[in-house]
Amino acid sequence: MTDDDTTAAAAPEGRPPAVLQVLPSLVSGGVERGTVDLARALVAAGWTAYVASAGGPMERELARAGATHLTLPLASKNPLTMRRNAQALAELIRRHRIDIVHARSRAPAWSAWAAARRTRRHFVTTFHNAYSLNLPLKQRYNAVMARGERVIAISDFVAEHAATIYGVGPDRLRTIPRGVDTGLFHPDSVTGSRVVDLAVQWRVPDGAAVVMLPGRLTRWKGGLDLVEAIARLGRDDICCLLVGAEQRKGFRRELEQAIERRKIAALFRIVEDCRDMPAAYALADVVVSASTDPEGFGRVIVEAQAMGRPVIATDHGGARETIEPGATGWLVPPRDPAALAQALAEALALSREEREALARRTIAHVAASFTREAMCAKTIDVYEELLFPAAAAEPVWRQAPLAIPA
What CA–CA distance (Å, rounded) separates 370 from 128? Predict the structure, then answer.
């Protein structure tokens, strides 16, 4: 820490509080979506919202939300670039009178932490997963996410990891599940024409039962297990959609080869990009999350449930907190195509009445626990613990209900 800022951060007077969220880029994904949602909620609550990243397509959404984007090469893991980012962030913090710095990813978190220390601003982090420890020095690299005055975990699973591995105590640790936009992700919000457009674009046969696995094309998302499960079903009236861009070069070809070996190529479609996920879920009869390793939360699971769709997920990580087995979906052991095939058979055998009853349960389940509004409100509560500790029991912004503009 330098000596250029010698007074501790205090609550702002005579102006709205200012929050700077820091992440690698604004391309796509759950972290980016949550960042934009929170920026929109801050503006709606009368705060000032900034986001620093390397930029990307979601900058437009950020601007529409009334927030300001600050461009820095924060996706870089180069130590020299990270050091320069720390200096640049410190200058931005002073210039824009930032009160809270909120880091959402490890590499930019190191720069954000250094800048927050240098300027004596409040520092908050979000653990988005139980980060792996499989390489030397990995735990030390990950540990920056445990240095926040408040450490937000996106599930109880992640919170336990932060507490056990990094010693984050209950005085600093807060669990805030990720939330979805239940106005966007709701069956009544999707027109039939949008669903038909996707069915035509993806060449879905009339009358086929649609099984969908959304997620990047990478091994740990479980695509190979789904291929084997579909083969075990032995049905030819299924259309299986793998929706997501290739993350590891060559894995798409490996998937295609596995599909060809099992002689089920006619049943599969690999879709690189989808800009209308609510319609995609509406097209599906069953949504699968087959991750071989635990996910911190599992946004796909909650989005699909918000759309009233049966969901099958692997029984570990955040999925255990978002699915109620026997009520809102199925949990199956990871890397077990036979169990996945059995769950698929059960889900596809649901009668119309059973599907409608399940849809009512899943929609209510998400509305009760996993909304965008709740996620943002709880995060602002965390900020107010730091800025207004005397009034934390009655958050200032809650003098009026929080309404996040669309």
Answer: 15
- The CATH superfamily holding the domain 187-369 is Glycogen Phosphorylase B; (3.40.50.2000)
Instruction: Kindly list the strands in the beta sheet with 100-103, ordered across the sheet, starting from the edge strand earlier in the chain.
Output: 68-71, 48-53, 18-22, 100-103, 122-127, 150-153, 173-175
The dihedral region occupied by 222, where left means phi > 0, alpha psi between -120 and 50, and beta the remainder, is: left
70 touches 51 (CB < 8 A) = yes
In this structure, CATH architecture of domain 18-179+371-399? 3-Layer(aba) Sandwich (3.40)
C-alpha to C-alpha distance for 11 and 9, rounded to whole angstroms: 7
Report pLDDT digits (tens) over 373-385. Answer: 999 999 999 999 9
Cβ pair 213, 286 in contact under 8 A: no
Per-residue pLDDT, 117: 97
* Number of helices followed by number of strands (H, E) in the chain: 15, 13
Residue 395 above 50 pLDDT? no
Residue 393 is predicted with a pLDDT of 52
Alpha helices per DSSP H over 263-334: 277-283, 299-306, 319-322
Give the mean model confidence (pLDDT) for residues 210-225. Answer: 94
- What mean pLDDT is reported for the chain? 92
